[in-house]
Amino acid sequence: MSSPVRSRGDARVDQQRVKKTRLSRRSWLQMGVAMAVSVHLSAGLALAQAGALGLGRAASSLEMASWGPIVGPDGDGLPDGGATAAAGRTIYERRCLACHGATGQEGPDTALAGGHNSLATASPQKTVGSYWPVATTLWDYINRAMPFNRPGSLTSDEVYAVVAYVLYLNDLVGAHDRIDAETLPGIAMPNRDGFVSDPRPDLDRPSDP
Ligand code: HEC
């Protein structure tokens, strides 16, 4: 029977609900920030572009600090620590497999492995192994955005471990290779030369209509 008088227990349940709602809102924010940051980082232009286009404003150092480590393509910003794919396997199976599949190819969500040499074919498959130009983005992205349902919940060593495992699933590292701030930037991604810079000088031509 429900009573019109709310007990302390009810209040606690309500509080928990509120906490959960807040958490998921924060998760979405983190995803948004991750996407914004990765777009900027991958373009390699970062905030300089905001000035050139007259859009937005530079992020303050306080804002940047609150986003946690920001890892650049050459690995600057990577934290201490490290791990191997062998260590990453259990974490992957517990935290990633349900959405990305045992070999990283089955899904149901985005494929993380496979698709090698498929980009120039009639059915290109964009995976970490076939498409991503640098391996360091993996650390930044996973740290910020994965697991999708609990972003930000992995320790930095756990992130190194699943980064190693995703690279291992793409045959890019051995099971016992240590992945850390020294070794991660040195991994030669198969599509590292597949991106071209597009500064769009055509848009600045005064003769354009
Ligand atoms: C609840 C489901 C879910 C879980 C669990 C999950 N992911 Fe994801 N993952 C996704 C979805 C959905 C995307 C696509 C997100 C997007 O495009 O914005 C994604 C994208 C990715 C990508 C980017 C792939 C690309 O090429 O764009 C990587 C890398 C990744 N996940 C790694 C992981 C790792 C490592 C774990 C475990 C620590 C994990 N994910 C756990 C659902 C999940």
Report what the structure shows.
The chain has 209 residues and is mainly α. It folds into 2 domains: 9-66; 82-186, Cytochrome Bc1 Complex, Chain D, domain 2, CATH 1.10.760. It has helices spanning 8-43, 48-53, 61-66, 85-95, 97-100, 128-131, 136-145, 156-169; strands at residues 82-83, 179-180. Helix 1 (8-43) packs antiparallel against helix 7, helix 4 (85-95) crosses helix 8 and helix 7 crosses helix 8 (156-169). The chain is globular and about 55 Å long. The N and C termini lie far apart (74 Å). It binds heme C.
Features:
209 residues; mainly alpha; Cytochrome Bc1 Complex, Chain D, domain 2; 2 domains; two-stranded antiparallel ribbon; 8 helices; 2 strands; 2% strand; globular; disordered N terminus; binds heme C
